[in-house]
Amino acid sequence: MRSMIPDYLTDVLEHVEPDTSGATAGYIPELADAEPEQLGAAFATVDGQVYAAGDCDAEFSIQSISKPFVYALALADRGFDAVLARVGVEPSGEAFNEISLEGGSGRPLNPMINAGAITTHSLVGVAGSDPAERLERVVDGLSAFAGRQLEMDESVCASEMAFAHRNLAIGHMLRSHDILTEDPATVVEGYIRQCSLLVTTRDLAVMAATLANRGVNPLSGKQVVPEPVLRQVLSVMATCGMYDAAGDWATQVGIPAKSGVAGGLIGTLPGQIGIATFSPRLDAHGTSVRGVSLFHRFSSDMGLHVMEVPPAARAVVRSNRVVGSGPHAIRVIELQGGIRFAGVERVVREVVETAPAETRVALDLTMVSSVDDVSRRMLLEIVRRLTLEGHGVTLVDPESILPGPHPGGGRVTVVNDLGETADLVADEERAAPRA
Amino acid sequence: MRSMIPDYLTDVLEHVEPDTSGATAGYIPELADAEPEQLGAAFATVDGQVYAAGDCDAEFSIQSISKPFVYALALADRGFDAVLARVGVEPSGEAFNEISLEGGSGRPLNPMINAGAITTHSLVGVAGSDPAERLERVVDGLSAFAGRQLEMDESVCASEMAFAHRNLAIGHMLRSHDILTEDPATVVEGYIRQCSLLVTTRDLAVMAATLANRGVNPLSGKQVVPEPVLRQVLSVMATCGMYDAAGDWATQVGIPAKSGVAGGLIGTLPGQIGIATFSPRLDAHGTSVRGVSLFHRFSSDMGLHVMEVPPAARAVVRSNRVVGSGPHAIRVIELQGGIRFAGVERVVREVVETAPAETRVALDLTMVSSVDDVSRRMLLEIVRRLTLEGHGVTLVDPESILPGPHPGGGRVTVVNDLGETADLVADEERAAPRA
Amino acid sequence: MRSMIPDYLTDVLEHVEPDTSGATAGYIPELADAEPEQLGAAFATVDGQVYAAGDCDAEFSIQSISKPFVYALALADRGFDAVLARVGVEPSGEAFNEISLEGGSGRPLNPMINAGAITTHSLVGVAGSDPAERLERVVDGLSAFAGRQLEMDESVCASEMAFAHRNLAIGHMLRSHDILTEDPATVVEGYIRQCSLLVTTRDLAVMAATLANRGVNPLSGKQVVPEPVLRQVLSVMATCGMYDAAGDWATQVGIPAKSGVAGGLIGTLPGQIGIATFSPRLDAHGTSVRGVSLFHRFSSDMGLHVMEVPPAARAVVRSNRVVGSGPHAIRVIELQGGIRFAGVERVVREVVETAPAETRVALDLTMVSSVDDVSRRMLLEIVRRLTLEGHGVTLVDPESILPGPHPGGGRVTVVNDLGETADLVADEERAAPRA
Amino acid sequence: MRSMIPDYLTDVLEHVEPDTSGATAGYIPELADAEPEQLGAAFATVDGQVYAAGDCDAEFSIQSISKPFVYALALADRGFDAVLARVGVEPSGEAFNEISLEGGSGRPLNPMINAGAITTHSLVGVAGSDPAERLERVVDGLSAFAGRQLEMDESVCASEMAFAHRNLAIGHMLRSHDILTEDPATVVEGYIRQCSLLVTTRDLAVMAATLANRGVNPLSGKQVVPEPVLRQVLSVMATCGMYDAAGDWATQVGIPAKSGVAGGLIGTLPGQIGIATFSPRLDAHGTSVRGVSLFHRFSSDMGLHVMEVPPAARAVVRSNRVVGSGPHAIRVIELQGGIRFAGVERVVREVVETAPAETRVALDLTMVSSVDDVSRRMLLEIVRRLTLEGHGVTLVDPESILPGPHPGGGRVTVVNDLGETADLVADEERAAPRA
């Protein structure tokens, strides 16, 4: 069998190809002269599978798509407090190159606008590193996100430097507020070099998948940034990534995203997938016209909107029955599926309502596919409370989906299948009566 | 066993109780004189369980918390196009009572600011309904969300009317742009009456859970608004619900939310839970001080942030093996857990990479807890493609998690357990070779 | 001889007549349907001569041109402090119907924008007067400026009331800030009635001339508002009267001015002239297109720009000579022209440098045409100082241009011609030698 | 006699001296450490008399007071169109260091804010001059306004350069809009050097007097900038010179003015006087606290407000009589004072109403002190019209106040006194009857 995903990608690219509206970015010749018909798309899964179609290996400059990744690097290198002291997280409702500084403090409103991104660039690496070291850290960090060493487009870089007046204006304004504390021209140059790194659509999909995968590059398996950084980065992409079109994007597409003026566009579904598209013609917001269309299709076809209510899961409690009889009876509650707060609450309720009369209670986790942190804690609390009430509690957990089950003050026996439980009961009874 | 959830609620209420900062809303005596020490919280699950603690049955006026619900009613009654033509979805980055109209059109930026909410009120019910009918529809709709008939606080309403100058200003401004097309004073009065409905914390949790539950009130089981409305409402709450604190809330709490000046605050986790808190002292943004603290706790303790990457699920492909041998051999691919796009992609890959030599292929869905729409379509496409390649395909689906498995051009046999499949194979062979 | 001024007016009207650009105000039929070809202009001098040409007797609604006059009435009726507490004097740089309230206080930025004009209307008459009394005072006051009883256009008024949404919005916003302290709808109605008064171009010229003439209507001779009010009104017209075109107007025309949407436009040159034009087609700022052209012509042709440096005056000291000889010698300093600070300073210098050795000093004011307040005080100080030094001082002032010449501590003799002075000297000497 | 003007200056300085509110500019040590008690004031008349008191010879940096003078130089060097294409004339209503560029064009709103002043600096000298030549032209130009060679404070200049981040930001922003077309850092450096020129209060008064005196330095007698530039510069000072306090200043002081952060403040009364004050402590607008008080005093004590209605001048028609009788009769209309439009209009009327029956008409200008351009043209038109009607017209103009009296199509005889006129009549009659 052939996978239908490449077919799907090919199909959607064909669907948007006739749209030749918009125009390439006009401010430097390298962008203005890009072949406007280029069109590519790629998906990268959190376990490293990449699907790519069209001009997915064409290189182009990363531009503003570097912003969320460099924000992640800054958070990783300096910590949340140091970064938040200099760059806010509020949507500006304005275009990407508006200065948008907070009254008084001069703090850029968020890291997705240029003012915030320039500041963020200055916060990568250890404090006090020189501009060359810092740039090296940025290049290496972005390369780690992509899973290969990225190169700079010196021609784009030179042109951008020659037209950097607005960014230099922003840099000096930041310097005047002591948001930048060094020569603004040097920081702006570093930022421009960051934006001039060459990527392919495929690279961008892997980078987005690294964000979706708790900071671990699914190809290399390396932890690029620590996990706590991701929630912050994805939240900021969701609220500020699309500038003044944030609301339309949030309602209609609902995928945290970021675009670049060279025509790239990425989106990240936490825990699921990284998506990238490439087509150089831009709309009035500076975002790829066909890229926007593709993301609308992806969101709608694949149910990827973050506010999409997931399908009603099969009840987390698969069965609740008594195995054996008399003193040998075991109350067995069988769970299934992925368990998050809403599921574990249902388990609590089942146990409470059952009020098991049996001495022995087993929670069968064999068919459970995932357990999140709060659910793990609450399952252990169920065990603890049952133990305190005098029950003997067994977890049937052949694949250790609930690792380290040591509830404070409780006691639990872990077995691989329910048969063992029955055996254990028999063993116990042969030994000594429980207190 | 006693449930630990009430204990948890009691514990977090105790934790925030000492915080007496902030002040009750001062603009009308009914709000100014509210007992400031009141404190309550409630959770409502999508299957109708309500946990409530503290002053969870104290009544207070719903105020701005009515906005997302009335927006849902307007979308349901008039359709997306009619509503979007008059109210946008962009965050304003401004306080709730800023006028914030789009330049030119005069369209309010979003339905969570007063200008948008007044307009939204005017769009409830069938076009041309008179103000009394419209108000009745609003009251009945909000009551349906709450699952009980809500009453109006006439005293609050009268005071609000006497201090409605700013809302009247907004109303006349909307009228001047033809966003409102009737007497603005009448619409503002209706809006004020809407805001004066009395609710309890418990009610609000159920209302929020109705949003989380695809528009179905989990207590009454009634579909209050159609499902497609929900994604829109939740997206707008996520981006615009907290006004000028949107970014802080999105990064730190990450729960679509809405607050009211009487001290109420709600949050909705799609598919999981509705949350409500009540405490009358407000911060500078007009949001309950203790309510904000409680939501920070809930988000952090229970992993409820929408950008929280869910725990790595157990592989969706539980096993891939051959049962039987020779011509009787069946390739059995056993799936598990909840399947969304990222999961079904893994299934596709498994089938592609396996390239089964066996004539018979079975997909065992017994341990699958949910299948979303795109995954359902892709599973059926797998079936279709395997069939086209000459395989006989069997679905093991005892609980019909994949209803209506009629892939275009394919053929599939559905059985309750794998044993049946073996039997079928034997039967087939006894009969006649397949075409 | 025929006066050339009517010829000039006719000529300039012919010059602008071919310009049919712009459009009548479209928001109410009465304005939209005005005959667009109407064109008139009038000058009124401060001594009551009116020159008028074209459609100078056609009636139209006064609209925003009422604003400076009603501001004058409010200042007259309530005093500067009470009015300034509620309406500022800062240019808004925005269009006439922007709300433009000061952050915090809610005070309208100036009385020429609608928010300020509505507030100003509420401040006419004695505090506590009812709306009908107040409106009567406004109508009577505007009529006193015009020198005839003005009538209201009830049809315009009714239409304006039906389209008053924006003004009502402003009114309620002002009420919400307690800038208005009564029902805003009543104040807005009064304001609209004020704007609906019918005037002719001739009337407007007389009204403008009353502002130029220290508040005295040059036709009726009545003091309509007290003199100190005028400087304030003219200053505010100069800085705020042309809204967002203030700078262009100030540099190119330089005449304090105010326009109305019915096509009227007035300008006032303090001490010299009131000008009015009428032509209904408006530019993007809401100002009469041909009116603007006419004012450019008037300013340039007649040197009416307030920053025009006046022609170098003939030296204020016409002659400085000694009449007679020996003990009979009189030092005679002959002055001429209008004397303001710069002139009197020159007189001081002349006296200081002359250091007259003669016992007798005469200041001959026969050829002086005016003396302002500071000059009067300084002339008297010269007299006082000369007297203290032992000089006998004589003023030759046949027309009492320097009334009440009683310098503190000095002594002065006033005569009608220099001959009398010589006689006096002779008389004195015949009497007794001076100390 | 001693002049009372120095006494007056000393008196007002003593009056404001106790006010120690405000603070010196804090951003560079040279300004922060200025002796805060310094206090000086000076008047310079348009004929070159300078009165100065207090610390009137202390040097300080000119700072923003250079702006109107450099604007004048740019207008002189490049013409109005070239300058207006790059710098507007609209008040910004904002603080001096706001960027305040027009949407779209990026043109600074006016030349008094930094963005406009930096642009203006770039427009001095011939197009294409190098930065050093341009700076030399600025220094020489400002020195010409002052009447002495000004020196630069290198220490202030170095400090300003080190803290120029905001001006550099503005410069780069202007460059990004192509308002500047060269390296912004070079222009900003030039601008900072311009602001670092050292002046005394006495210098500033002379500079202001040069503006008042049609561009002619009253000390040196040199024409520093051409006359048409002055109206533009003074208008812009009047509307934009005091930034966000423009309205208060315009109503209460009414003198076109400009302040600098070193504590200087100048004002110009066209045709009359230049005023300067110096005191380093600044208010919230960045203007000298005592300077503001002093200007309030000057305006009020000396009637210097531009909207002050001048004193009613003695009637411009001093007498209207017939001299001689029978065929020898001459109609003599005697004029007096300064004649501007309002005066000449009165003369026209007198002639029209008189409708002289006499063949001979004389206009006696002996007592006229000034005649502006429009009045000159109208007087000649009177002559022309009288001539056409068959009158013989004589001007009695001993001091040639009406030079070049050659009315198109008319004929006029100029005499030194009325006696000559009678003689002429006699002569004529003796000769031949006129055609």
TrEMBL record, chains A, B, C, D:
Q: Which SUPFAM superfamilies does the record cross-reference, listed alphabetically?
A: beta-lactamase/transpeptidase-like, SpoIIaa-like
The UniProt record lists the STAS domain at 330-396
EC class? hydrolase
The UniProt record lists the EC number as: 3.5.1.2
- Keyword Acetylation attributed: yes
User: Has UniProt tagged this entry with the keyword Acetylation?
Assistant: yes
Q: Which Gene3D superfamilies match?
A: DD-peptidase/beta-lactamase superfamily, STAS domain
Q: Which residues bind substrate?
A: 64, 114, 160, 167, 191, 243, 261
* Record text on subunit structure and interactions: Homotetramer.
PANTHER family tied to this protein: GLUTAMINASE
- What name goes with this protein? Glutaminase
